[in-house]
Design a protein that fits this description.
This protein is α/β, with parallel strands linked by helices. It contains nine helices and 15 strands.
Length: 339
């Protein structure tokens, strides 16, 4: 691909995620990182030393006026996503937004509506579909080896002291990522019931959910973001089928079959992440980030819909809105009621 046809990339928000996406775009042959914008002048002064050929700005309007861009990564707090997208959408930009899609279901719906009239590519930062262990788990679930699966149990535990900086944003980011994993593995949720102390993002202990999927699969989910001893999110999912069970974590899969099925013998089969051939060509931060970034840029280059769409992000925001409504009303909420 010639340099004239490369995607011209700008980064809005140059914290950890912004630096990550800039670095990944910088090594992608389909893209050229040209500019970044951040409100922290100290960060900008430092980055100008490290990247003298990149244009840095503290004002978005100035960046858009002075640099020819067609692809933007938004790595700012979720409350800024809608205002930024509203400004960018009229400039025919391809837009990648870090998760969650927005700070509310209403804002997320507005973003999707704005994008629906454009032919550009719109994606967001959910990375589970690019992780080899979760890909293998999804393939096993869909293979039929477990026969009829009617229920699963899932949990995500981590320690996040209430005094943490950006506490609510961190809860929303990590929890929405986990809910997207559930959505990606098992499909849409038609109704749910939630119980928690406090509201979804500000609760001190977490939430307990009962999810009824459109496929009639039932899930029991335990979300805890204030449990001691978890420096990073610990994910566990257990499926129960009439033909066996499947236990999923971020480190291994444990499959138990009541009889031999294809390549798998009766009894236990354990698959470790380290033994599976990873699709990741480059590790930066963790598995999946390079693939998520490069998949978006490839979609932009080919003018095709992204692997992770804003429509999916909207459905996750719909689930979060339903969780809040269920907690407040102490009733089961149909997701079709969340409009």
């Amino acid at each position: 691909m010639s340099s004239q046809k490369k995607l011209k990339v700008g980064i809005i928000g140059f914290g950890k995620k912004g630096i990550l996406h800039a670095s990944l775009a910088n090594i992608n042959p389909k893209a050229e990182w040209k500019a970044a914008c951040d409100s922290d002048e100290q960060t900008l002064s430092l980055m100008k030393i490290f990247y003298p050929n990149i244009a840095f700005f503290s004002d978005i309007v100035e960046m858009l006026e002075k640099v020819d861009l067609n692809t933007i990564f938004i790595c700012t707090p979720d409350s800024t996503h809608l205002p930024l997208v509203t400004r960018l959408i009229e400039k025919d930009m391809n837009i990648f937004v870090e998760n969650p899609l927005a700070d509310s279901f209403t804002s997320a719906k507005q973003m999707v509506n704005l994008a629906s009239h454009k032919k550009n590519v719109f994606s967001l930062g959910y990375y589970s579909p690019f992780k080899v262990l979760f890909q293998k788990a999804k393939a096993l679930f869909e293979s039929g080896n477990l026969d009829k699966v009617k229920r699963y149990r899932a949990s995500m535990h981590y320690t996040l002291p209430p005094a943490s900086r950006n506490y609510e944003s961190l809860v929303a980011n990590r929890t929405s990522s986990f809910l997207h994993l559930i959505y990606w593995l098992f499909g849409p949720v038609k109704s749910l019931y939630a119980k928690a102390f406090g509201r979804f993002a500000s609760g001190r202990r977490g939430s307990f959910l009962i999810l009824d999927h459109s496929s009639d699969l039932m899930g029991l989910v335990d979300l805890s973001w204030n449990r001691p001893g978890f420096q990073k999110p610990a994910v566990k999912i257990s499926l129960e089928g009439t033909g066996g069970t499947l236990d999923i974590s971020e480190d291994m899969l444990k499959l138990y079959l009541y009889k031999k099925r294809g390549e798998f013998n009766k009894g236990w089969t354990t698959m470790y992440r380290i033994d599976l051939p990873s699709p990741s060509k480059f590790y930066l931060c963790e598995e999946g980030y390079f693939e998520g970034n490069s998949s978006f840029l490839k979609s932009c280059s080919n003018k095709k819909k992204s692997t992770v769409s804003w429509e999916e992000g909207l459905e996750i925001m719909r689930m979060i809105e339903a969780i809040d409504l269920s907690i407040d009303s102490n009733t089961e909420i149909s997701l079709s009621e969340v409009k």
